């Protein structure tokens, strides 16, 4: 199979487009013919070696955890899927080696759900990691209908899905973004505010009594700003502030979850959630896609088109 891989840690330039052996299929896994693979910031962080302290890493390393594709073979103990089924997955395993930047991926069924019919392959590939991150963060803070939520980096890949999940749950959503993304946030159902100095005052102008929950998808001290605005300082979740637990909030490291991934697909097919695609690259141009991700200005998801 064709794949993107590296023999060492480094920046995107260490990646090569090459031939590698087809993956073996474990008893509880399926083999997926990849149609598209989502690009996430964790991909270039893994490539740089940042995950080495917590995961065993083996080379050659194929990056990527997001996938959308068609089941090509099933393991000996897989009643859930058949050859030809269209699936999506957040394919994070215990070790880091066989990622989704490839023509074929072997994925445990616990990481998969059926592809939402309403989403294109590119949109579907951008849903699993970002959607589950937002969904699990909303769960962690106990976001409920009738409450007001503050979402930081609301126009990004995770944030734009978080906004839609919260709106679908019946929350009022205030989202931070640059001016160029304010109309985009309004289209998702959020009230936009510009990030940066004076943010707390701008949020208070919209919500004088403060907010009920806050989701930090960017880092850079916004947990502190959130806690100035929260009625309960503990109802903040972050994916980027390593000190949030010491501050009384919740740190979220997204987990594979078939049930919640299925729920995200149901939201999409009900017309309550879509995936904004910022850019699509062919698999061979994965280094360029990662550089775009590293720039931090994507509106929605960056995706690799595989086959």
Automatic annotation (TrEMBL):
Matching InterPro entries: ADH-like_N, ER, GroES-like_sf, NAD(P)-bd_dom_sf, YIM1/Zinc_Alcohol_DH_Fams
Any Pfam family matching the protein: ADH_N
Domain Enoyl reductase (ER): start-end pairs: 10-304
PANTHER family noted in UniProt: ALCOHOL DEHYDROGENASE RELATED (PTHR11695), RETICULON-4-INTERACTING PROTEIN 1, MITOCHONDRIAL (PTHR11695:SF294)
Name of the protein this chain belongs to: NADP-dependent oxidoreductase
